[in-house]
Amino acid sequence: MSDRVTVAKTYKLYIGGAFPRSESGRSYPVSDSKGGFLANAAQGSRKDARDAVTAARKAFGSWSGATAYNRGQVLYRVAEVLEGRREQFITEVAQSEGVQLKKAQSVVDAAIDRWVWYAGWTDKIAAVLGSSNPVAGPYFSFSTPEPTGVVAVLAPQQSSLLGLVSVIAPVIASGNTCVVITSQDRPLPAITLSEVLATSDVPGGVVNIITGRTAEIAPWLASHADVNALDLTGSPESLRADLERSAAGTVKRVLRNKVNEDFTVTPDLSRIRAYLETKTVWHPTGV
Amino acid sequence: MWEYAPAPESRDIANLKPNYRMFVDGKFVEGSGEPLKTINPATEEVLAEVSTASASDVDTAVKAARRAYDRVWSKMPGSERAKYIYRIARQIQERARELAVLESLDNGKPIKESRDVDVPTAAAHFFYHAGWADKLGYAGYGPDPKPLGVAGQVIPWNFPLLMAAWKIAPALACGNTVVLKPAETTPLTALVLAEIIQQCDLPPGVVNIIPGAGDVGAAITEHGDVNKVAFTGSTEVGKIIQGKLAGTGKKLTLELGGKAANVVFDDAPLDQAVEGIVNGIFFNQGHVCCAGSRLLVQESIADELLAKLQTRINTLRVGDPLDKNTDVGAINSREQLVKIKELTESGEAEGAQRWTSSCPLPDKGFFFAPTVFSNVSQAMRIAREEIFGPVLSVLTFRTPEEAVAKANNTPYGLSAGVWTEKGSRILWMAQRMRAGVVWSNTFNRFDPAAPFGGYQESGFGREGGRTGLEAYLDV
């Protein structure tokens, strides 16, 4: 047994590709499932959320304009880097979720595979969800799915890594950017994931991660005029209706997921579809 | 200039009746709401008295729809549902002339539009969706997608029959039952559609049509036993509905307002562009959510285009909707006319330059001469707010990037237009304009096979095409 003192990590936010502390200067203690101290996490504020939206908006143009092939490779790269840090995530998931190492292994493996699954979708979404429209007239008409814009994601409270990956990957696969509020009590795997994202060719601002009190930050995102969609997955039950009402103020797309969504099963397309617009383009035919 | 002899369609063809009743559970019944009088906006005369629903009538209609869903419609094979929907399409075609005249009487739109666009497209929507009813497993939502249940639908006055078709056809094809409220000022063609539905022998309660004002719409959308809400109308009301539905779990689709940019580049075929601009803003008196109400013209051709446009607009004939030569009919209501006047006055007050067609207007009825504002800046109300009338705001741009920035400078995102001979530029623009429909070198084209709907505050969900089925399936 070495008597070397280990270097503890400072957990910060992830905004615009950088790792700032909360501008509020606040942090909160994060415990393992038995109540033991794990680390302090930054307690994000309204201002942090707004900075994150600004970063996400700034990143939207180039990320949505990147080729689907390029986005696919970036998502696949996330899987590669995550695989390389598999042991670290197994430890963090085991600590955060209070599960045995074997269970944590299967969770991390599923999270890696989830990135691979969504990586493969990027350049197939338009083929599967788009259409050539056989209109009754001398026109060529086609419809393509396009990303909705900036998505505010309330990550699942229980599933700190697999659930988190399962809600982020479908958002960015199609070219959206996002602001994610992590699990309030299990935020550490999310911050470690942001280190993976920062080293996986995901452009800064495409994914922004905020730790803190979900109920404090979520209302600001639900009412924010530059947020286009809201994923309520990790919302406290008591807050859902209020957040939906706020979201109506700017006609946001709201994903109300099924209660107790099982993130261990292979997803369907519904989370990808939730953040897509269909654009129909017409042009006359003739000589 | 050409001289035109009057060429009126006979109003007798409309088979106008003095009284119309609501359609609930397969029967025409008196509503217990205060009856409304629907008027001809071109003459201000009363066309008919129409019974309206009270809150308890709404409940009765929803119960009828629920019964029909549970007992009949959700259990019926798609192939059988399809045949009912095909019947409706055919009957609309058979009674097309009657429906067109009635639509023009009640709405004020020119007969050539109701005859050539509204009614045939309504029939096409039923025909198209009928074919989906037994093929939903091929639509990309899994092998056996399920309906949602009872759909509550509220539609606007600008395309009364067509909007009813857009709403009812996909709902039925997907296996839902319907409670629909037509607009307060234009209930008649929806009630003739109810007659058609009755004659097509649809099981009672599958479609219920209950006229009334906004309170009836609210009662439908907020009813506890409605599973799906579809609304077409203003963004203001859409936001209220979305807010009211918060926490209910009801599936919602909204087709709301717009402030579409119609972008004309210096290489565009100008004569065609002029036709497209005119069609874009004066079709249906500009009462179109996807109207091309903001003309963005490249600076180098702005003067030339504006001159051509004014010459063309001066030839538009404004007047009797039933006259086959009429291009621009009546504004649908006094209320809407007041709104258009108020907004155009704000345009003048804010410093835009107003030009109005010299066409004569009828002495009676609600009419508004085609109007063009130039020297419009982006901050003016006439560049930001939906006017929903025959009023065009002209802005200029220099570079394609500026055109995109100005086109997207709006919380709306329903439609956009682009005019240029350069194919790569069309696609470049189409990729960048944040709108659900982009018409290039054309405008205002609609087809049941082509998905339609908005980005941002123009709403969500699509109508038409494979994509449009999602709104009525539990997926």
From TrEMBL, chain A:
Gene Ontology terms, MF aspect: oxidoreductase activity
Pfam family, one: Aldedh
Keywords for this protein: Oxidoreductase
Signal peptide: none
Occurrences of domain Aldehyde dehydrogenase (ranges): 32-255
Top-rank taxon: Bacteria
Listed name of the protein: Aldehyde dehydrogenase
Native source species: Lentzea aerocolonigenes (Lechevalieria aerocolonigenes)
UniProtKB/TrEMBL annotation, chain B:
Record GO terms (molecular function): oxidoreductase activity, acting on the aldehyde or oxo group of donors, NAD or NADP as acceptor
Active site: E255
Record-annotated Aldehyde dehydrogenase domain positions: 28-474
Alphabetic keyword roster: Oxidoreductase
InterPro entries per the UniProt record, alphabetical: Ald_DH/histidinol_DH, Ald_DH_C, Ald_DH_CS_GLU, Ald_DH_N, Aldehyde_DH_dom
Pfam families found in the cross-reference section: Aldedh (PF00171)
Family: Belongs to the aldehyde dehydrogenase family.
Protein name per UniProt: Betaine-aldehyde dehydrogenase
Organism: Lentzea aerocolonigenes
